[in-house]
Every structure is written in structure tokens, then in C-alpha cells.
Amino acid sequence: MTRPLRIEYPGAVYHLTSRGNARQNIYNDDADREKFLSILALVVERFHWICHSYCLMDNHYHLLLETPTPNLSQGMRQLNGVYTQAFNRHHHRVGHLFQGRFKAILVEKQAHLLELSRYIVLNPVHAHMVKSPEDHLWSSYRATIGQTKVSDFLTVDWLLENFSSQTSRAQQLYREFVNKKEQQSPWNKLTGQIYLGSDDFIQQVKNKTTAKTDSEETPLAHRQAGRRELAELLMQKTVQTKAQRNKLIYKAHVDHGYKLKQIADILGIHYTTVSKIVKNEEG
Predict the structure, then answer these.
(1) Are 13 and 64 in contact (CB under 8 A)?
(2) The CATH fold of domain 12-208
(3) Contact 165/74 with Cβ under 8 angstroms?
């Protein structure tokens, strides 16, 4: 079967899942789960994502994200890559943690975001891990209904505003919505492997995007549009220390999309040195 296309555009909403390689667990303890959420928080901030819902299972996770800027693939590489490094350090292991590509479903926000938020937080119930969604400590559900503090990276306003302008009332109605009798799976409505929405929504997406597979780079003209020249980024007169230089290298690669070899060529160093600097800056 042909791999689904990656489609990115401003304001896109996605249901994302990423699974462990060979179905292995991607979280072995609560320290792993805390680390993942801390990395997710950094990625949401860096890439200006809006996270409406999440759920950490044992061997995979679910995210419901909105991307004001078309940068999903870049952000997901950061999320899974940095977390894999942290997991491997913690458990003294090497190699891949995630199973190939993450799965991304494009979602028509007004029609399906609520339904998907419900599906995501009910995953632990469906997997017989807990009896009710509030018993699972590693999802957005408890924060959304007001049982715990809302994390800085989580946005609950849109979900709750669909029920009431009064927060406590909205939280109660959302709780009832999540716990009501099971409805048809949203995946029965999926079109073309990647769309969850009406025919009009699908056509609108096709009209305003250029799809690309993960194996393809964004066209050079698109990647370079509006970004600063690499030499200008790296050769600033105010840069006097190695630490300052390393931060600029990281910024050039992560925020501006320059390749490691391009950075190495400008600075006259080996690209493996640049790679190590980027990894160190990621922590």
C-alpha cells in the first residue's frame, strides 16, 4: 500500500499517533512520561503549536494538535528524536524507539475535534487499563475537567467553549460528553487514509496545499522564503564565546531549517561536530 501523503498548511488540525518499534513500550516508568511531557511542552512552544488533547499509553501516544505554521514534520522530528535520546540515556540503550513514521490524520476542526478529543482520552478505558478516563494520570482529561492544573502547553478553551461560556458548567458538560454511551468509531469516517472531514473540507485542503511525503524535502524556494542568510545568522559580531556560537548553530538548524553540512561548510568544521553541538543543545 502506498504511504499516505504528508500535508501541511497554516491552521491544520491533526490527530497524531506514534508507536514503539516492534510494539515495545515507549514509557517504562513515570520518569519517562514526565520527560516526554516536558519535551512536548518545549516543542509546542518552539513551533507555536496548539495542543487540544493528549494521552500517553504504554507503547504509543495520541496528540490532537493545531499548527498555525505548517511545520508538523519538523516539530515531530524534534519531539520523537529528543525523547528517544532521553529514553536511551535513561535506560542505557541504543537504537530506534519509534516505529518508522508517525501517523497523522487531518481533521476538520468544527466537525470532528470534539469527537476526537473524546476518543483520545477514552483510550485507556478501551485498553482496560482503567475503569474511567479520570483514573488515567497521563492524559489531558483531568486538566480539561478541572481536576488538575492545566499545563502551559495544553489549550482547553476551545473544547470547553463548545459547551458553555461558564467554565465549571462547561467542564461538567464535557465530562458528561466523554462518558456518555459509546458512539461509532471516528475511523469509520476516514477518507483516503488521512482525512477526517467532509468532502468540502477535503477539497479545500487540496486547493491550498502541496502535499509531500516524508522522504521529500520542502522545495528550496519554500524553505528559504523569508529566512535569514546562514552566514548572517552564524557570523554575528556579538558572538564571542563557544556557548553563544553553539546556540546559533542550533537555531540555524532547528528554527531555520539549514542542513548540518551547510552549517559545517560556513564555519569550516566537520558536520559531525555540528551534529554533536545540536544534540548537546537539545539536552
Answers:
(1) yes
(2) Alpha-Beta Plaits (3.30.70)
(3) no
